[in-house]
Amino acid sequence: MAESPLDLHFSCSDLNREVAPGHDFYEFVNGGWCRANPIPEDYSRWGTFLALDRKNQEQLRGLLEEAMAKGDAPPGSPAQLVGDWYAAALDEVAIETAGWQPVRPLLQAIGRVDSVSGLGALCAGLQAAGIQPFFELGVQQDARDSQRVIGVLYQGGLGLPEREYYLDPEPFFENARGAYLRFLVRLLELWRGPEAGHEQLATEVIGFERELALVSMTPAEQRDPHAIYHPSTVAALVSEVPEFSWHELFSAHRLPAEFPLNLAQPTFFKRMGRLVVETKPHVLKAYLSLRLLSAASPMLSSPWVENHFTLLQALTGAKKLQPRWLRITRALDPWIGFALGQLYVGRYFSASSRERTQRIFENIRAIFRDRIQHLSWMSPPTRQRALEKLDRMTTRIGYPDRFRDYEGLVIDRHSYWGNVVRAASHALAYDLAKIGQAPDPEEWFMTPQTVNAYYHPSRNEMVFPAGILQPPFFDPEMPEAYNYGAIGAVIGHEMTHGFDDQGRKYDASGNLVDWWTGEDELGFRDRIGRLREQLAGVRIPGGHHLNPELLMGEFIADIGGVNLAFEAMQRAGAGAGFSGFSEEQLFFLAFAHLWAGNIREDAQRLLLATDPHPPSVVRVNQTLKNIPAFGQAFALGGDEPLYPDCPVDPWGRGPAEVA
Ligand SMILES: [Zn+2]
Prior knowledge:
The protein is α/β, with parallel strands linked by helices. It has helices spanning about 25-35, 50-70, 80-90, 90-100, 105-110, 120-130, 165, 170-190, 200-215, 235-240, 245-250, 265-280, 280-295, 300-315, 325-350, 350-375, 380-390, 415-430, 480-495, 520-535, 550-570, 585-595, 600-610, 615-625, 630-635; strands at about 45, 135-140, 145-155, 230-235, 260-265, 395-400, 455, 460-465, 595-600.
């Protein structure tokens, strides 16, 4: 752990004053912090974001321990659910004694399937336990009719993080495949004992996954909402992918015989259908068993946990397994996270941070409105629709007005795996029951304790959980300029997502409807093209290139967010600086400090392949090269690398757009 992980307030000792701000602002602001905060052995990266997350996890741990000690909370109450979950997950004696026995029934079910036609019902059983082989079944708001929830079938089924990990001949990916092979062989050993044929079988399973990877869309391709929207029906699915027993799958989930669904990647599913009939049955069964064992490993006895960690280590560079309390606290989040969140906000969230965040939000929206009104390149009809979208954007701050209840879910102190399966089954049934309904406006897609925020294009809504509304993102003790640079930039970022290269394709009601005139679209694309060139020219430490198509939405949001928040700060007349820095300078210090951190090389490669966010140094330096106010605040000379010589902000007051 870092020296004082709980002190997340900004301080001038975080700086590295030996570096000029205009040369490398990321290092100038964060150099001191990064040196004082090396990556803990059980993390693959470490930064202000994760330090705050760690602080939250420790608070959650306290709540879980209290709930566990209480022992007499009413059945189904948040304290009973999370307290019993925690108790079962901490019960190492029971977990070690059970070995892999908890997953025996599901392994037996896989063993019993003797034809492809049995796969549908089998997959339903696995899905209900939280394991999604071949593909993912879920729900979404219909992209063209946001007031209706439909089913969605999405590509999936891979054990490695992305298709590149199967297909790229580079040594880095070759090594990852080697580690994955060893992981699978070890799973087979732990399950069936040592046998000569394990390596051959595991190789065949990877070969099967490789076939799925070949027809999987890349993360960048999936950013185009049109490319992953293919409205369909059960009847059409059955005729297009006849090899898979869809009716058995859906009826096992008690879905009606016909319902609307989105077949997100038709090419993937057609190939997957053929693959299940072409692949030898023993390979398919091994694939299903290994998906199950892999997913269950973290909840089983120590040899399984260690094997799972060995793979994680190879993929991320982490050197040590995280302590049990931390692993199980994190693992709870997707299943009963709102029960824990209810306890968390009751203890740790203050209403005043909600009010102040709301005020900053409205000030930023007023600036965005003003900018749209003055965009010189946009015609009146498109401008009108952009304004309507902005005005109808909603925001939720802190925690949901109505907490989700987990009615009918049984969590006990007897079996960690049993709890996970019941919670997963409850969660999937809860989701699938929404098909055909209007979306619940009170639903959140992140728990309140999460250190993050999101914009949801189908809802035209932004959510800022309580977990992020504290230092370094929001600090009531700092001058307001700090908060505009930190949480203000985050709010501006999420707001801009509604208008980035992806978000702009949805209208004010959250429908995927083209509201742009052809000429306005060209104007927007021209600006995106210039940003693409910028990203294509960037090299990060290690010499890696970036993938502009993957990063574009986040890059646009970062630039827009900083510009909006800065102007909102100016208009609010925040006033005070900090420790010799002016108010304007403090704003940029606060922004850059959000991204302070260190990362291991393997984890960096993993993020480059999967994460739509640019690396931290790019989020600071390349963003600021597009912010004229940054150059002014630090009086940069035209010859300094970060001088904003050709700033681009698709929604901003660029040089040509200054009135
Ligand atoms: Zn974002």
